[in-house]
Amino acid sequence: MTRAKNPPSLRPVLPCDAPRLAALLRASVETLAEDFYDDDQRAAWAACVDDESGFAKRLAANLTIVALIDGEIAGFASLKDARILDMLYVHPGYARLGVGSTLADALEKLGAARGARILSVDASDAARAFFERRGYIPQSRNTVTINGEWLGNTTMTKALAPPITTGHA
């Protein structure tokens, strides 16, 4: 992956995206979470997309958006029930290029536009600092079992600004 010449653009998820987003999630977990979870934990986490049909249904059930840089899929994120940031993954080749921030900005605005006053996320240990920098406040420490492995995460919340209205009648 080369350095981006343009900022990320966003589009809705398409049904044909599921295999590429599953591969992106695996790469993200394997590489970007390496300092926070051991090999078995990362393998268990990444296996959540082995059921491609189930993963595609999860993407479709939520408001899922895809970030593109120079036409390539660089990341994706999904909003569940207008108030839960369910997934946010960036391909390791595009880490630290603003992809995660662009996705989070969009979901925060979409959540607020859909009436959410607070957005919640169960942030992995790898993503916790990212969400803290965005103003999310830790609420509780969690331990979850995924495919027989224990992984820690932190439930974090952020108050959303109400959507701006134009005042037109």
Second-tier CATH architecture of one domain:
3-Layer(aba) Sandwich
CATH level 3 topology of one domain: Aminopeptidase
Name of the top-level CATH class of one domain: Alpha Beta
Shape: globular
Helical fraction equals 25-40%
Major sheet: 4 strands, antiparallel
Q: What is the β-strand count?
A: 7
Annotation field: number of helices: 5
> What would the average pLDDT be, to the nearest integer?
93
Distance between the termini: 48 Å
Helix and strand run: EHHHEEEHEHEE
Largest beta sheet: what is the strand line-up? 1-2-3-4
Cα Rg:
16 Å
The structure class reads alpha+beta
So, the CATH homologous superfamily of one domain? Gcn5-related N-acetyltransferase (GNAT)
Q: List low-pLDDT spans.
A: none
Beta-strand percentage? 25-35%
Describe the fold and architecture.
It is a single chain. This protein has 169 residues and is α+β, with helices and mostly antiparallel strands. The protein has a domain at 9-115: Gcn5-related N-acetyltransferase (GNAT) (Aminopeptidase, 3-Layer(aba) Sandwich), CATH 3.40.630.30. Helices cover 32% and strands 33% of the residues. The protein has five helices and seven strands; from the N terminus they run βαααβββαβαββ. The protein has helices spanning 18-32, 39-46, 52-61, 99-113, 128-133; strands at residues 9-12, 63-69, 72-80, 84-90, 118-124, 137-146, 149-159. It has a four-stranded antiparallel beta sheet with strand order 1-2-3-4, sandwiched between helices. A three-stranded antiparallel beta sheet has the order 5-7-6. A hairpin with a 2-residue loop joins strand 6 (137-146) and strand 7. Helix 1 (18-32) runs antiparallel to helix 2 (39-46). The mean pLDDT is 93.
